[in-house]
Amino acid sequence: MRYLQSVKQENEVKLDLKDKKILRLFSSDCRLSLTQIAKQVSLSRDAVNYRITNYEKKGIIQGYRTVVDLSKLGYSNYHIFLKLSNPSSEIEKKIQLRLCKINNIRALIKFSGNFDYEIALVVKNLTELDTIITKIIQACSGFLHDYEIIAITKTYVTETFPPDFIPKQAKESRPFKESKIDKKDIEILKIIGENSSIPLYEIANKLNISADSVAYRINNMKKSGIILKFIPIINYVSLGYNLYTILLNINEFNEEKEKILINFFDNDKNTLWAVKTIGRFNILVYILAKNINQFQESMLKLRSLFPKQINHYETLIAYEEYKYLYFPKELF
Questions:
Q1: Is the dihedral angle over the CA atoms 140, 8, 2, 324 positive or is it negative?
Q2: What is the separation of C-alpha 160 from the centre of its chain, rounded to a whole number of angstroms?
């Protein structure tokens, strides 16, 4: 999938082991200092800086985002899958622009498959969800053939790279401490939401507070679980990957089946993101694979776990991304 495409890159970029280690570290926290990364990959600070700059120039890294847990700010996550009635390319572009302008929509991804688009959105209640669905229908201007709504209830996996890229490190599980945020915290989130690599002193200058105060507030939001992590936006096409989306309906999905599924996600080398949902489909999975064989390997293993319980599933191939935000600042 081509992420953002601020820098065009369609050809695969070759990486060595040092590159992969840097990108793995960067994907866990792109606010790590060059010195911190250099120590962990046994390179000089200048060498690390050169490589990261090169990732940006070659279009591997397309930007930096702050991942925010919007549920702690009163929002629920929904995904809507759209099937259009063959609009012309000109009309489809207008539909894309209209959808991107809806503030509650965090992401808009185009697919090849039974659905044409996936929309990720956040709302505070069902009344607001109804309003946003109406806006989506209006944005499609008579070309909406069908749509499917699912609510995200639980996250199983969330990674920037799958284990097949380079084995992931064990994560420290730490309890979050409840903490209230104020208007100044929200202003910080608005700044770092779409550019998580911005230096502390620049944030401080924008808000007329000290850099130490900014650092303290960011650290508090991390401790409370409002800020989950800082990540680079990766153009997977530049690394030779394709993104596949799987929508599954597993019959009588209970705690026992859930444990089996979690074990699969913990061991599968291609799973990028997986969540539990409510709707016609109860599982949503993103698989990142170099080729169809890798994808089929994961898919066949998954299906073999529930040979008689998978009632229905859809496989979609991600093609283009038009919007992807973790903190839609217009809502705050």
A1: negative
A2: 8
Q: How far apart are CA 317 and CA 242, in angstroms?
A: 7
CATH assignment at residue 181: 1.10.10.10
Q: What is the pTM of this model?
A: 0.90
Tell whether 203 is covered by a domain: yes
> How many H-runs (helices) and E-runs (strands) does the chain carry?
10, 10
Of 37, 108, 75, 322, give the one whose Cα is nearest residue 189.
75
211 within a domain of the structure (yes/no): yes
What is the tally of structural domains in the chain? Answer: 1
Instruction: Give tens-digit pLDDT for 62-107.
Output: 999 999 999 999 999 999 999 999 999 999 999 999 999 999 999 9
Tokens 């609009």 belong to which residue? 87
Assess contact for 32 and 26: CB atoms under 8 A.
yes
Structural domain range at position 220: 177-224
